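Lay summary. Proteins are chains of building blocks that fold into shapes, and those shapes determine what they do. In this project we predict the shape from the chain. Here is one chain we studied, written as its sequence of building blocks.
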Amino acid sequence: MTALTLSTAAAAGLRADAIVIGVAKGTGSRSGDLIVAPGAEAVDKAYDGRLAGVLETLGASGAEGEVTKLPAPAGFKAPLVVAVGLGAEPEKDSGYDGEALRKAAGAAARTLTGAKKAAFALPVQDASDVGAIGEGVLLGAYSFDAYKNNAGGKDAKDKNGKAPLAEASLLGARPRDKEHKAAVERATAVAEELNRARDLINTPPNDLNPEAFAAVAQAAAKEHGIKVQVLDVKALEKGGYGGILGVGAGSAAGPRLVKLSYTSAKAKKHLAFVGKGITYDSGGISLKPAGHNETMKCDMSGAAAVFAAVVAAARLGLEVNVTGWLALAENMPSGSATRPGDVLRMYSGKTVEVLNTDAEGRLVLADALWAASEEKPDAIVDVATLTGAMMLALGSRTFGIMANDDAFRSAVHEAAEEVGEPAWPMPLPEHLRKGMDSPTADIANMGERMGGGLVAGLFLREFVGEGITWAHLDIAGPAFNEGGPFGYTPKGGTGTAVRTLVRLAELTAAGDLG
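And here is the predicted shape, written in a compact code that computers can read:
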């Protein structure tokens, strides 16, 4: 992973492969003009104050994430200047938005594959800017190359045979400033764990089944002082986890329920995170049609996000207890698979008529939600690539938030927006609950087709303990990017929701969340 350093060195004298600067679109009286952002003064001066004009000649507009490269001016030890767009110029003295800095740093880092060192001279007003730039660099430089013949280990290379950016020096960040150092340490911990989640999502399902995922969690827990418990098939049968067992019944790779417990001696609150971990989803007997199977290795993105968030909380030493529940199964068709029409007895004791075996995520989550509820946490947040309906509603970059408490739903939304993860609050309309009534069981796993994402949320609500605050994040859209990379987001697994969960844990530790 790219190494981050803090530097007060002058841009001209720094030995590096490139100097990264920011440019923006002018507003107000400067509307339409290209603006050179703070941090790039030395570069602009070396161009006799004409840097903006040179960049405009090369086609630069300042648009968010736009990258323009040009030779460095005379007297600079770095041979290249990389100008990256920050979007609209902020209002006077307000500073650039953290997400704009994060995206710009990520876009620049992606273009610097093969470079040994780059100096990032982006606008820095305070420690939060330092953290945003550092996070953007680390997330933007991410590359998954474990299965390429020319890659492996610390010398991993991309498809062009070039290693990711090795070192990023953040100019304007003070090495001896405690807040700046803390911001970089936080960015490193969060980005490293988010990138680990991306690795898990991108790993082919023949190498990442429930048992293998559980082993990864056990190794990380041992490394970071997290207590771990893994329930295998025998333990799940003994405990009566009918939802997880029912979904995993058709696979030769048995299901698992993994519990990760991070505790702090100073904690006053307890959060539980629950993640859907379908390591491959064929749809089961209700087989997915052709063209819908190829990316189903990503159906464990919720569990990956929960796993990463718990480890990040431990690395940051947050003063809050965080328990992560990873509901892991492989959904396959076979002679032993659950059939449409079967009735499962869940861990809660409720019975569920399975009308569609491709509505399996809610079944594994139901068992894990009830297990989490037994510990009476202050709040539960589940994360899942749950419904295609949520993608139809919100597109491929925004996740939906449902909750049994409006104030908590708003708090989760605010946390997501604060860290740069687009999300939107969604309702749980009571009239949709009736569609899941079953003549055979307590509830069916399917209801009305219209509003399917909300129906799934209503189903999950049935398995949350009484009086417990709960939110559900349906990340089906942004969890896996099938298009080209943008900002700090790569093609493939994105690690969506990791930063939201970490921020919720931080806010809870600080006493700012309920």
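What the prediction tells us: The two ends are 36 Å apart (CA to CA).
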